[in-house]
Amino acid sequence: MNKLFTPFDEIRNNALRLAYQVYKDGFVPDVIYIPLRGGAYMGNVFSEFFKLVRKNERPVFYAAVVARSYSDIHKQDKVMIDGWTYNPEHLRNGDKVMFIDDIFDSGKTLNHLVEVILEKGIPREDIKVAVHDYKDVKFKEHLPIQPDYYCRKFELNSEDDQVWIHYMSHELVGLTREEQDIQYLNNDPGLSDVFDFINSLD
């Protein structure tokens, strides 16, 4: 499996371009939801952009949702929502909703979250999904909700095509010592104490 390191400033810049594309397409969200924690970095950029777009109007609500996937006793994949900081019960007809996440992989969590909003009576055309990375898995059945916007798309025709995307805006898990050196310590040797401590936790 290939590993792709994505610097935080690349994510920021791509998110800014994507927010502008959404605006040019005529979609201005009333509510931005980010699934924690992956969507937070891109969501901040979108929130700042649309804050400026709507500075003289009703502000865009910026909210988080905590959701997680798990397998039940029948070995079926389920999604559990632990909470919303802006409850979908408050949504009104005509509200435009946007979900923002770092990656669309299996898509189970985002599909579940969008379904919740659809059940509140918000039509699909008023709901948009934006992600930094879209894994278009050709060898598995597609779920109904696929990203409307993305920065990068990876077409995966088999398991051999899988790519591990490491977001340097926040991820630390899964780094080898060599990757720590190349991606962090070569640029900032002052982080050596931090990584010495992290490695001592193995």
Any overview of this molecule?
This protein has 202 residues and is α/β, with parallel strands linked by helices. The protein folds into 2 domains: 170 residues, Rossmann fold (3-Layer(aba) Sandwich), CATH 3.40.50; 29 residues, no CATH class. Helix 1 crosses helix 2.
| Share of residues in strands | 25-35%
Low-confidence stretches are: none
Q: Number of folding domains?
A: 2
Name the average pLDDT.
Answer: 92
* Rg, Cα atoms, Å: 18 Å
Net shape: globular
The profile of the biggest β sheet is: 6 strands, mixed
CATH architecture descriptor text of the largest domain: 3-Layer(aba) Sandwich
Strand order of the biggest β-sheet: 4-3-2-5-6-7
- Counting DSSP E segments of at least 2 residues, the number of strands comes to 8
Order of helices and strands: EHEHEEEHEEEHH
Give short descriptive properties of this protein:
30% helix; Rossmann fold; 5 helices; 202 residues; alpha/beta; two-stranded parallel sheet; six-stranded mixed sheet; 2 domains
